[in-house]
Automatic annotation (TrEMBL):
Residues 5-262 form the NADP-dependent oxidoreductase domain. Substrate binds at residue 96. It comes from Parnassius mnemosyne. InterPro entries: AKR (IPR020471), Aldo/ket_reductase_CS (IPR018170), NAD(P)_OxRdtase_dom_sf (IPR036812), NADP_OxRdtase_dom (IPR023210). This is NADP-dependent oxidoreductase domain-containing protein. It comes from the Eukaryota. The keyword Cell wall biogenesis/degradation does not apply. Keywords: Oxidoreductase. One of its GO terms (molecular function) is oxidoreductase activity, acting on the CH-OH group of donors, NAD or NADP as acceptor. The active site is at 34 (proton donor). The record marks 63 as: Lowers pKa of active site Tyr. Pfam families: Aldo_ket_red. PROSITE patterns: ALDOKETO_REDUCTASE_1, ALDOKETO_REDUCTASE_2.
Length: 288
């Protein structure tokens, strides 16, 4: 449940992962495009060397970027990530986006079904214990499952109070696909919210009241709600106190009335719309 992302400075990523492991996190999420794999790997290997954790008790995720979607490019891309991480394998390898794109920004014609065949090869070689996808919609998942002998183990998508994706979550439940939620706080923090973002914010009186009831913070209430939706949230922070707070959500449960209230904030509002790729034939989101 610890995410290291692209706007995290590399030295901070190493510290954050060390703090996360010490706090009890065992799921570490990175990606080649984040440019944090080196620091993430350093932190993991240092903690393993210290005896703080065993490698087999960690669940490390990284992702294939858009410029390596050709079937024959997948395994070399993962091997490069493994070299950067200084790990023998990752526990989960994801197709980051269903869009094939050169480094110069132009698209190239590779179907994600072809990319998936490369992912299957990576799994068979033992480079990844499991494989999955990120930012795929339900139609893409249906097509992938119908055309392949191996189903994605995980779907990683944006899920937060403003974008709860109930239909997609239900489909994944039926298919036994685990759902991981990036950007779990959405627009809760005012400094991260766009001007058109719907409520709530972190100072919302109703959410503050719920948080006070459990002696928690509003972000902890949000994470707890996602966990109760059977979603794995992966919050991103490089602040030690928040790293520790974000995992301290397993000693209480929300009431049905509280869950119903939080459900009401779902407005199908995306924080990460990736509109720069809207003209791609594999753009996965609504185009309105």
């Amino acid at each position: 449940m610890k995410k290291t992302s692209g706007d995290v400075k590399m030295d901070k990523a190493e510290s954050a992962v060390k703090w996360a492991i010490d706090a009890g996190y065992r799921h570490i999420d990175t990606a080649s495009i984040y440019d944090t794999e080196d620091e993430v790997g350093k932190a993991i290997n240092k903690k393993v060397a210290e005896g703080a954790v065993k490698r087999e008790h960690l669940f490390v995720t990284t992702k294939l970027w858009n410029d390596a979607h050709a079937r024959e490019a997948v395994v070399p891309a993962l091997r490069k990530s493994l070299e950067t991480l200084n790990l023998d394998y990752v526990d989960l390898y994801l197709i980051h986006w269903p869009i094939a794109q050169y480094k110069n920004g132009t698209y190239y014609d590779v179907d994600y079904l072809e990319t998936w065949e490369g992912m299957i090869e990576a799994k068979k070689l033992g480079h990844a214990k499991s494989i999955g996808v990120s930012n795929f919609n339900q139609q893409m998942l249906e097509r992938l499952i119908s055309k392949s002998s191996i189903k994605p183990a995980v779907l990683q998508v944006e899920i937060n109070l403003n974008l709860q994706q109930p239909a997609l979550r239900e489909y994944c439940r039926q298919q036994n696909i685990v759902v991981t939620a990036y950007t779990p706080f959405g627009s809760v923090f005012p400094n991260r919210a766009r001007s058109d973002a719907p409520p709530p914010r972190v100072d919302d009186p109703t959410l503050v009241q719920i948080a006070n009831k459990y002696n928690k913070t509003v972000p902890q209430i949000v994470l707890r709600y996602l966990v109760e939706l059977n979603v794995i949230p992966i919050p991103k922070t490089v602040t030690k106190s928040r790293v520790e707070q974000n995992i301290d959500i397993f000693d209480f449960e929300l009431t049905q009335a509280e869950r119903d209230l939080l459900k009401g904030y779902d407005k199908n509002y995306r924080t990460i719309a990736a509109k720069a790729w809207i003209d791609s034939p594999y753009y996965p989101f609504e185009k309105n």
